């Protein structure tokens, strides 16, 4: 398939810990995006990183992109219970098709 | 801006009935996407439009599904006849400035076909 694939499928951590999720894809891209979905809600855009960028920050979020390995990672630092959600990646190479996502649970 | 607006929020219907889901994209956005989300199949892209024209409908499951965008501010997804396996959350999303830029999602329609 052409969509990004997130891993792990599920991640459970304690509040205050860092959470790292990964995304792999198969073809060359111009950009990669990360989204968050709280239970029962629509996806919310987090960060867009372009192929000529290696790292991008937004608040407690840090996204890296390695085009040679066709992979990206999303790091959430100092996690909070409110970060509990599913996280998805999508690339421009697949017309915004999403993978199965990573289900993050942050325990208080 | 009110964001992407979907209606109804919840729909319960009986097998065989026609179902129409509605979406109003953000004003000025020229791309509109329809997705379906289930536990088994995840988030599937059904169809997307650019300037009211369907660009890729390869994700539409079968002929029972149809989508239209009669103007820039309105789109419908119709299922006729509906089946229990169509039960899912259906999301609409829109974006401007290119099909691969930031998507804005609606709150979704929870469809239950009994």
Structural topology:
The complex is a heterodimer of chains A (108) and B (114).
Chain A: E1 5-7, E2 10-14, E3 19-24, E4 31-37, E5 44-50, E6 55-58, E7 61-66, E8 71-76, E9 85-91, E10 102-107
Parallel strand pairs in A: 2-10
Antiparallel strand pairs in A: 1-3, 3-8, 4-5, 4-9, 6-7, 7-8, 9-10
Chain B: E1 5-7, E2 10-13, E3 19-24, E4 31-38, E5 42-50, E6 53-56, E7 65-71, E8 74-79, E9 88-95, E10 104-105, E11 109-113
Parallel strand pairs in B: 2-11
Antiparallel strand pairs in B: 1-3, 3-8, 4-5, 4-9, 5-6, 7-8, 9-10, 9-11
Q: State the oligomer.
A: heterodimer
> How helix-rich are the residues of chain B, as a percent range?
under 10%
- Structural class of chain B, by secondary structure, is mainly beta
Separation of the first and last Cα atoms of chain A: 37 Å
Helix content of chain A: under 10%
Shape of chain A: globular
Structure summary, number of beta strands of chain B: 11
Beta-strand percentage range of chain B: over 45%
Please tell me the overall pLDDT of chain A: 92
Q: Determine the strand fraction of chain A and express it as a percent band.
A: over 45%
Number of helices of chain A: 0
Number of DSSP E strands of chain A: 10
Can you write the helix and strand succession of chain B as a string? EEEEEEEEEEE
User: How do the strands line up in the largest sheet of chain A?
Assistant: 1-3-8-7-6
Low-confidence stretches of chain B: none
What is the alpha-carbon Rg of chain B in Å?
13 Å
User: Greatest interface and its residue counts?
Assistant: A-B, 21 and 23 residues
User: What summary fits the major beta sheet of chain A?
Assistant: 5 strands, antiparallel
């Amino acid at each position: 398939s052409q969509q990004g694939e997130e891993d792990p499928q599920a991640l459970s951590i304690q509040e205050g810990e860092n959470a790292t999720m990964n995304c792999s894809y198969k073809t060359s891209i111009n950009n990669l995006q990360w989204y968050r979905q709280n239970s029962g809600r629509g996806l919310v855009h987090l960060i867009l990183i372009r192929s000529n960028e290696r790292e991008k920050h937004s608040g407690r979020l840090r996204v890296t992109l390695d085009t040679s390995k066709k992979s990206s990672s999303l790091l959430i630092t100092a996690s909070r219970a409110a970060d509990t959600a599913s996280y998805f990646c999508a690339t421009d190479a697949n017309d915004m098709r999403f993978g199965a996502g990573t289900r993050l649970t942050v325990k208080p | 801006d009110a964001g992407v607006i979907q209606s109804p929020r919840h729909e319960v219907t009986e097998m065989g009935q026609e179902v129409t889901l509605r979406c109003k994209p953000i004003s000025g956005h020229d791309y509109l996407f329809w997705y379906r989300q289930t536990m088994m199949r995840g988030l599937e892209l059904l169809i997307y439009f650019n300037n009211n024209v369907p660009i890729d409908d390869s994700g539409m499951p079968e002929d029972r599904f149809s989508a239209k965008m009669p103007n820039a501010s309105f789109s419908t997804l119709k299922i006729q006849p509906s089946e229990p396996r169509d039960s899912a959350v259906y999301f609409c999303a829109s974006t401007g400035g290119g099909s691969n830029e930031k998507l804005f999602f609606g709150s979704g329609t929870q469809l239950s076909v009994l």
